[in-house]
Amino acid sequence: MFATIAEIAGYTLPQYWDSYSFKSLLNSTGVAPRPCNYSEINNGLPSNSGWTARDTIFKLIHLDNGVEYFYNLKIDPFEQNNLLPGTLNSIQQNAYNYLQTCKLLNSSDDLLSPKNKLNIFPNPTLGDLHIDWNGLDDSAYRVYNFQGKCLQKGILVNGINNIGLSNIPSGIYMLQTLHGTKKIVKQ
Question: What's the alpha-carbon Rg for the chain, to the nearest Å?
Fold first, then answer.
């Protein structure tokens, strides 16, 4: 994070000790912004676990015990006024329905559609990673470290693809495609 904050502040500092800047990920040209953000909450108890989805105006929190909170962040940025006990107007109702859909589109329960199957082997790997992509179309991929730095990118075609990882150090990485994300381990 330090290198990212320094670079945003105007310093040319793409790396500082073990911190790498991911500023380039913050302003990717040609990439459409996500219409909604989704994240899961797991605190071990149904009353504290669930998921949240938000767009530029509204935020929906759904806990596993069925309790929901819905906020208009433009007029209530500190999330003090839950809109759900009252009657939602048409704009609020449409936003609520959309954020429910956002959850369905982004849930980690099914990161990869059955129509787009991704098998990775061997995982962990000592060098080459083989990716069996059984997709309806080609898919872009990226390999990220946990500092958010993209180490490698390319295109997966239908069939078995080989990705050489011998040039990166041992560790845990994320393989991201247009259809989901998988953890990979380089030994």
Answer: 20
Per-residue pLDDT of 82-101, as tens digits, reads 999 999 999 999 888 888 77
Question: Which residue carries 């704009």 as its tokens?
Answer: 91
Here the tokens at position 82 are: 């839950």
Q: How many CB atoms lie within 10 A of CB 108?
A: 11
pLDDT recorded at residue 110: 40
Taking 50 as the pLDDT cut, the residues of the chain under it are 107-115
What domains sit in the chain, N to C, each tagged with a CATH number? 1-31 (no CATH), 37-110 (3.30.1120.10), 117-186 (2.60.40.10)
> Quick check: helix, strand or coil at residue 104?
helix
For residues 26 and 29, what is the distance between their CA atoms, to the nearest angstrom? 9
Q: Which run of H or of E encompasses 161?
A: strand 159-164
Q: Tell me the pTM.
A: 0.45
What count of other Cβ atoms lies within 10 Å of the Cβ of residue 40?
13
